[in-house]
Amino acid sequence: MEVDEKKSVWRLTGSSTATTMSQYAHVPKSELDEAQLRQLEEHEISQGPLSVLQQAVRNHAQVLISLRNDKKLLARVKAFDRHSNMVLENVKEMWTEIPKGKNKKPVNKDRFISKMFLRGDSVILVLRNQA
User: Fold this and answer.
1) More confident: 22 or 60
2) Residue 16 to residues 27, 29, 48, 82, 129: CA-CA distances in angstroms?
3) Where are the beta strands (DSSP E) in 16-121?
4) Are the C-beta atoms of 126 and 65 separated by less than 8 Å?
5) Which residue has the higher pLDDT, 65 or 32?
6) CATH code, residues 60-128
7) 45-57 mean pLDDT
8) Is the model's pTM score more than 0.90?
9) Cα(42)–Cα(57) distance, rounded to whole angstroms?
10) Are residues 30 and 40 in contact, defined by beta-carbon separation less than 8 angstroms?
11) Where are the domains of the chain?
12) Which keywords are on file for this protein (predicted)?
C-alpha cells in the first residue's frame, strides 16, 4: 500500500494475495475497487460475527435466534445478508405468555412455521445449536 503524498490518496499495490485484509481496514471503502470490496466483504462474513450464519447455511445447522419481541426462533438458515435479514425454514417460534389475574403462572407457547423471512432489525442474538 502506498500513500501519494501530493494527493494524499491511498493506492493499493501488488497482487490481491499479497494484500492482507488488515490493509483494507484502514482504507475508505469508497477508494477500493469492486474486486477489493468483494474480497473485503467475503473476509468480514467468513471471520466476523456473520460467520455464525455462514456456517449454519453451509452445514444446514440449526440456530437459536433471540428477537426484540421477546420471542425465540429455532430454525435452519437458508440465506442471509449483511443486515441479518434471513430466510429460515423449519422454524419453531417460542414465547411465554403471562395470564392476567392473580396466582396465574406463565405459560410457554410455541408454533411451527415451515418457511419465514426474518427482517434483520428485529434480531438481537444468534447462537449456534451445539446439539
Assistant:
1) 60
2) 15, 16, 20, 23, 35
3) 62-67, 72-80, 86-97, 107-118
4) yes
5) 65
6) 2.30.30.100
7) 84
8) no
9) 15
10) no
11) 2-47, 60-128
12) Cytoplasm, mRNA processing, mRNA splicing, Nucleus, Ribonucleoprotein
